[in-house]
Amino acid sequence: MVEYKIAKPHITKSDEQAVLEVLRSGDLSLGPKHKEFEKKFANKIGTKYACSVSSGTAGLHLAMIASGIGLGDEVITTPFSFVASANCILYVGAKPVFVDIDPRTYNMDPKKIEAKINKKTKAILVVHIFGHPADMSSISKLAKKYNLKIIEDACESVRASHKSKQVGTFGESAVFAFYPNKQMTTGEGGMIVTDDEKIYKLCASLRNQGRSDNMQWLDHNKLGYNYRMDELSAALGLTQLAKLDFMIGQRRKIAGWYNKYLEEYANLVRVPVTEKGNTHSWFVYVIVIKNPKINRNEVISKLNAIGISSKPYLPSIHLFDFYRKDFGYTEGNFPVSEKISASSLALPFHLDLKEKDIKYISNKVVDVIKNTQ
């Protein structure tokens, strides 16, 4: 039986050689590679500064601190995301205030934001879900109207754009992530981008135990963290970045094949959309089962049994146990997010897949859904 993994990084000989060269150099941390990676990544995104970190979660934590968000503040965000986007707000003592999502794009619904704004609101943490940009035109107008900061969680959406402007360039800062299932990988790792020199310098200090910018080895003038990116990861980031546009182009091709073979079954599944004016960079390929009577988890189980790896994407954050306990959330609070969470699943999506594989997977998905109640 052929087994189709849900995700797999695209690693080539150039990636292996770059990592091996650093390993042999002995400069495994605080060497030249992370600086080079930062400079080239900033150029790619179109920001003045980039600060490498150990993960997207670490980057979001530092972005919260750099924005001055703290105890008693509120930050508006989405419940339909990986849990880190909301947790990073809790890390600084603030409260995540959820806004339900758009049923087409699965991004935060701008029409529902204004009702959640009050005197405690300090920022909007925008998540660009699955590689598809949020409606930044509408969100930016609201932020300007109420003098709110925008922080972008672009961890899933590198090189996506809204009206020809790349995600990561709309807010005072943004965060990208490079976990192995992302469009590019450093193994573990992330990047904060900004045009604000003060934010960059603060994040650069905080990631390195709060070290003073006088660069003295043991001079720490603020509480910091061990959120550095190591040199092996940075070296991999450089070679991955060099082929990023190629890899995203291939992901778009694979998404196109899925659309080709699944769109005729519009009565069974909803395929991802790309809104007019947006470009999609395809982190994952997620479908939604339309019939609410069909058990999504059973579909996933049956697919896994025949070698097609699949997972729910994504649970609604407010229904995790500690969010229920600490904030009193329950079913029905954010019905659109909950509906998508209960009916969505991610299909295998990586560069080793050929059109014949996508045709096979699509046909099996349709067969399983038809035979599941």
TrEMBL record:
Keywords, in A-Z order: Pyridoxal phosphate
GO terms for MF: pyridoxal phosphate binding; transaminase activity
Active site per the UniProt annotation: K182
InterPro entries per record: DegT/StrS_aminotransferase, PyrdxlP-dep_Trfase, PyrdxlP-dep_Trfase_major, PyrdxlP-dep_Trfase_small
Modified residues annotated as N6-(pyridoxal phosphate)lysine in this record: K182
Record-level GO BP terms: polysaccharide biosynthetic process
Pfam families from the UniProt entry: DegT_DnrJ_EryC1
Recorded family membership: Belongs to the DegT/DnrJ/EryC1 family.
Name used for this protein in its record: Polysaccharide biosynthesis protein
Species for this entry: Candidatus Yanofskybacteria bacterium RIFCSPLOWO2_01_FULL_44_22
